[in-house]
TrEMBL record:
Designated name of the protein: Uncharacterized protein
Domain of life assignment: Bacteria
InterPro entries, sorted: BOBF_sf
Matching PROSITE patterns: PROKAR_LIPOPROTEIN
Amino acid sequence: MKQELIQMLQVGTITLLVGGLFSCSKVNDSGISILSPNAPVTNVSEIKQQNKVNSTVYLQGNVVKLIPFVEKRAYELKDNTGTITVVTKEAFPKQKQEIVIQGKVLYKSVPAGGQEFGEFYIEEQKRL
């Protein structure tokens, strides 16, 4: 009886450890984050195609460019569908690093010559 209890505890501990390792893994290909199962990952192209302004989204991609500003920082995040600028108050992520973020979709209007040259960007809320 005591030995069975010890075996059950060992199996339970191993299960928790393995589960903990996988919960820190990358976002899977289906677009669902293992870190946050109820949060679907949005492709960059979807942000630019759909009106998601002021929506909270989760993005996964590689940091391809760092853009220093005076009071804020920005970086370009690239997934397999496109690239988008992310503005953050946090420290820069490492260039070429793959990251998952939660952010708010914003749009900066730039009218010129009767045409709209605005751009969508992300205000980083949390790095996962």
